[in-house]
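Chain A, query sequence.
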Amino acid sequence: MAKAPVAGRVKTRLQPPLTPQQAADVAAAALHDTLAAADASGATDRVLALDGAVGLWLTAGWRVIPQRGETFAERLSAAWGDDLGPTLQIGMDTPQVSALQLDEAMARLQDHDCVLGPASDGGWWALGLRTASPTAFDGVPMSSPDTCAHQLRRLVELGLSPALIKVVTDVDTWEDALEVAATAPGTQFATMIAHLSDALPSDYARPRTR
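Chain A, predicted structure.
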């Protein structure tokens, strides 16, 4: 799941301290690293549910489908519209996630009906299903401090056996961006955040490499 990195349409919670174009540059870097992790994983099929137009940032081997639906829950559900086999769904807000983490999450589907990756803000960053369920997101409030708890409850209501995977931080605010960049040295995202930090007032701390 991703939005095309267009100024004014992505990462609006990074504004301020960033301008709309700078926020779009951050989104483009996050998207680059997310696609790279998926490319390096053992996934046999890679599908991008995209809001917006494809750009030069898209690497080869991806099947692109448009996002459909009014609410985010509807868009998530529509992305599962095809008859998919075991699938892991992620977004573009966790550029620190590696191909190994994606493979480990997919491997959990061998002995669980589904996997769920909690985010530190109460949402979730990854959801995997062995078999697509068109009602998996019914009644789940999105962008809420308890989204992950509601999502977990919904999966259990459907009779599924969830496996919880590692909690990670997704990038919503500038503070999130600094934290994530510090955990992912060498990524395009970390390089972009360091570059932007140098241009910001001194009260916006530069990320530290861990």
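The chain has a mean pLDDT of 92. The longest strand covers residues 46-51.
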